Amino acid sequence: MVNNYSSVWNNCLKTIKKNVNNQSYKTWFEPIKAVRLESNALTIQVPNKFFYEWLEEHYVSLLKQTIRQELGDRGRLEYQILMSKVAKNNNASETNKSGGPGSVNTGNIKNPFIIPGIKKVKIEPQLNPSLTFENYIEGDCNRLARSAGVAVAKKPGGTSFNPLVLFGDVGLGKTHLAQAIGNEILNTQPEKSVLYVSSEKFTNQFLESIRNHAVNDFVNFYQLVDVLIVDDIQFLAKKVKTQEIFFHIFNQLHQNGKQVILTSDRPPKDMDGMEVRLTSRFKWGLTADLQAPDLETRLAILTAKMMQEGVELPHDVVEFVCYNIQDNIREIEGVLVSLVAQSTLNRREIDLDLAKEVIQNFVTQMSREITIEFIQNLVADHFNVPVEKLKGQTRKRSIVIARQLSMYLSKNLTEKSLKAIGDQFGGRDHSTVIYSCRAVQDLLDTDSMFKDTVAELEKKIKLTMNDR
User: Fold this and answer.
1) Separation CA 274–CA 289 (nearest Å)
2) Residues 202, 264: Cα–Cα separation, whole Å
3) So what's the pLDDT on residue 188?
4) What number of CA atoms fall less than 13 Å from residue 117's CA on the CB side?
5) Within a 13 Å sphere around the CA of 139, how many CA atoms are in the beta-carbon half?
6) Rounded to the nearest 10 degrees, what angle do helices 372-383 and 397-413 cross at?
7) Whether residue 201 sits in one domain with residue 264
8) Type and span of the H or E element at 212
9) What is the pLDDT of residues 143-194, one digit of tens each?
10) Which range of residues forms the domain containing residue 270?
């Protein structure tokens, strides 16, 4: 029998390496150190409690076979968990001494290391319970991301969307969607542990664990989570040590079938200052972008928020707010809060004048320059036709009129060239724009009802021009 514990373990590793893939070997076996050989029991040191439990769950048979090959039928394996100094002071006995539990030859390994509070602690999810799928308005701007979120919520860790990376500009609903996933999981699968944390808080917790010599406890805690949601992951850029610890936590969660959800203001490929090995893992699952909501979605969001808060606003105020705030859902909600506050405190009726005063605090310069996209949306909404039809080749009369009117208004109310206008309508040339403008003018001269329609649309447009 070989008595040198290092030699025994090295021989075991040779057998193990032939039976697992290279990545698994590097992740789960290279970090292990043999520390003792006594009475046919080889003691190995593993980095943390999670590491031990993973070996216990996935490699028991292989370990049993290799240890018996080296030490005979009575050979067994015992574990020693490498703990932080703080944990060592609170837990003097680190190694299994009981003989039975922890020995490979029984085929029934149980964890002999009880770290007080780790397994039984209830993880507070840190979620806002009001951020749910029910009040997350779906539109073309976020349909893919929301659908993926629903799929993840139904089967966390069990879809190909792991990790799920949600990216987009500020105020487009990334945090809302990420937390909605977490809330839905807690609602339907309460046995799951969910944790939402900002990247800043994660970093601060890690630094605190370094100061307290409790890095292993920090890692152990995060490895207990079934669903980890990290907000604004891009702020880990250039934080080398924090990225390293997150890399290991991510790996172990992912390999254990746990769900990871990340939000960012940019896609993984554009995360400067982030290690390549991290960004490559972010690409393993699904990367879904959230774009600025179109007019219809903004109107739906504000209307839903009004219903949620029990507030009523005049229709022209709702339109004015949504026309002027185009790129930030959070600002739309902020305007609503400000309108209600101003109305209550100053005893003023909520009207267009009050809306203009409030919006000046949110928009440096209100939308004086009307966009072609805005005109297309407004006209399409009025004629009840899809915006895409205005840009397409459909020759249906109602759509042709709406298309021609959109071109007419774009020429008169924007500073865009005829070519630029034509480009926005499916790549049409300038001569088509000229023809459309003449056709609309002919209708204005001969059809009073059509003239009234154009006047109404122009009035709505001018609401956004701040009476200039």
Assistant:
1) 19
2) 15
3) 94
4) 7
5) 18
6) 150
7) yes
8) none
9) 889 999 999 999 999 888 999 999 988 888 899 999 999 999 999 999 899 9
10) 143-289
Asked if residue 351 is part of any domain, the answer here is yes
Read off the tokens for 258. Answer: 């746990």
How many domains is the chain partitioned into structurally? 4
Angstrom CA distances, 266 to 160, 201, 241, stand at 21, 20, 22
Q: Are the C-beta atoms of 209 and 246 separated by less than 8 Å? A: no
CATH number for the domain that contains residue 440 = 1.10.1750.10
Q: Is the domain of 408 the same as that of 437?
A: yes
pTM (predicted TM-score): 0.54
Helix axes 448-463, 430-446, angle to 10 degrees: 120
What are the tokens at 90? 């609170």
**Do residues 82 and 51 lie in contact, with contact meaning Cβ atoms separated by under 8 Å?**
no
Nearest to 407 by CA among 432, 443, 442: 432
- Which residue, 465, 399, 466, 463, is CA-closest to 436? 399
Tokens 């900002």 correspond to 198
Please tell me the distance from the alpha carbon of residue 1 to that of residue 390, in angstroms, as a whole number.
84
Query: Which two three-digit tokens encode residue 159?
Result: 């879809």
Residue 142, φ and ψ in degrees, nearest 5: -140, 10
Tell me the per-residue pLDDT of 400-410, one tens digit each, with 9 for 90 and over.
999 999 999 98
Using alpha carbons, select from 102, 60, 63, 64 the residue that is nearest to residue 80. 102
CA 405 to CA 383: how far, in whole Å?
11
Taking 70 as the pLDDT cut, the residues of the chain under it are 1-3, 50, 82-122, 362-369, 462-468
